[in-house]
Amino acid sequence: MEKTTIQLNQVTVERLKNFKNFERQSYDEVINLLFDEIEEESLSEKEISEIQQGLEDVKKGRVYSISSVAKELGITLK
């Protein structure tokens, strides 16, 4: 694997150290784990579309109250 050197502010290095899972973990591993977490948290186009549809349903009144759903499911709300 080809390697390169990058310049980081000392503050950035200290922040990266806080993300290490173990002392000898490389910064490359830390950065890639952070990238993986960001990618996992990103919404897909389908998820965004479904959220937009849900918001549109709410705006147009196509919703059910929690009490009506509970009654239909035979759940008693306190």
Task: List the main descriptive attributes of the protein structure presented here.
78 residues; mainly alpha; 2 domains; 59% helix; 0% strand; elongated
- Strand content range: under 5%
Q: What is the overall pLDDT average? A: 93
Number of strands: 0
N- and C-termini, Cα separation: 61 Å
What's the helix-strand series? HHHH
Please identify the structural class as seen in this structure. mainly alpha
Overall shape: it is: elongated
Helix fraction, binned, reads: 55-70%
Rg from Cα: 23 Å
Number of domains: 2
Summarize the main sheet.
none
Q: How many helical stretches?
A: 4
Q: In terms of per-residue confidence, which ranges show pLDDT below 50 for 5 or more consecutive residues?
A: none
Can you walk me through this structure?
- This protein has four helices and no strands.
- The protein has helices spanning 10-17, 27-41, 45-59, 66-73.
- The radius of gyration is 23 Å and the shape is elongated.
- The N and C termini lie far apart (61 Å).
